[in-house]
């Protein structure tokens, strides 16, 4: 039976029903007061919740692919094959636990759904996909002509300027070269998330950014990450996080003071939120900011503060209230500091106190360095509190406003990294001969390449869908979902690309070894995957049902 996009629609509809039924059952079990989720009850079902979250992410990406799949050809084949992957993955999570999911039997075991499942899972379909994608570039869901042109510009830049530097920076754990930062500035990367009135290129809109703004950021992130994730990094995200905080809750004078120079690349931004004992549990942060006259005295330790050595500005989340205030007692500060190269630095504050920082050695994602930073009686002017006195206690909310875009861009980084890994594997398997035949001629190789192709395009389509939702004022939950899905997919794709290289996949001379190391960090930062699954995605799905 020839697979068609109708099979994909049938399978995704069936999978959606399974997920929705499970979410409905879960919502009833974890319902607390005022139609909110009782977290203690939710935590008692973590095993189910984690699998349900993964299933919901898979289905969401499939639904995002459908419109593209309806255009026929390769898009239809990729969409259909991915829908078969969705059904198989959901089945693996449900089987033996049907009662917990609130279902009696899986729908693709009988009737039309079973036929659709067989068509979507056929090896013949996977081989047909590989025949088309291995001969040329892997397709992407369609964008406007303007964004396609931007994609080509960023792709060429990544190939010519970023990729040649990647291996040396990674192997020697060097800083991102200043020449590359200057190139990024000339291309306008730092201003993509900042509105035109403050020197950026974003047109803005009711939700802060237009869909075109967000898609432009996603495309730039994807393409530059193909050159190197460590060198590209979230150079768009950090300025955008600061801009969002200032424009949502800052004072006009503060926006005018910092944003134009951030947009131009004159001022670089780092973010200091995570603490050694508090990662995803932001509400428990202990770094304190105590008012003393015209200053705040900062004491505490931050960790995983990426690029904070080179940064001119640190966006610091600190506790101005009591521990009992939780997230309502946190405020955001902008700390101005000199630039420091290398892996350790000390800053004696202009007004008193000091900052002592050291880089954390990591197996991948090198170039910007992630620092552990100790603040010792460091005095920051009260005028650097975002929002002034009106900003007291609003730091958590201002920080969260930018998390959706940040997670969406992390998904875009995962997509860019997967594309680089897929392209390396496709090239190598055509060049490498084993037992007298090209590696790409073997069925197992072709099925692996096809799976890579549909995972990349599914995550990409879901990221584009997320940009649309955020521009409309929503998308907070979907941003976490696409981040979870894409980051987990990136681990598999880069691992299989490495595997297809055989022993050379373990050699540093091949970039694919670096891709795998870089991919490993993706499901750890911007919200660890387990926390996203249980406390964000599943909780959000249940609360939607309870409304």
From TrEMBL:
Signal peptide: none annotated. Transmembrane segments: none annotated. SUPFAM superfamilies: Acyl-CoA dehydrogenase C-terminal domain-like, Acyl-CoA dehydrogenase NM domain-like. One of its GO terms (molecular function) is flavin adenine dinucleotide binding. Keywords: FAD, Flavoprotein, Oxidoreductase. Pfam families: Acyl-CoA_dh_1, Acyl-CoA_dh_M, Acyl-CoA_dh_N. Residues 393-541 form the Acyl-CoA dehydrogenase/oxidase C-terminal domain. Its cofactor is FAD. PROSITE patterns: ACYL_COA_DH_2. Residues 271-377 form the Acyl-CoA oxidase/dehydrogenase middle domain. Residues 144-266 form the Acyl-CoA dehydrogenase/oxidase N-terminal domain. Belongs to the acyl-CoA dehydrogenase family. This is (2S)-methylsuccinyl-CoA dehydrogenase. The lineage of its organism: Bacteria, Bacillati, Actinomycetota, Actinomycetes, Pseudonocardiales.
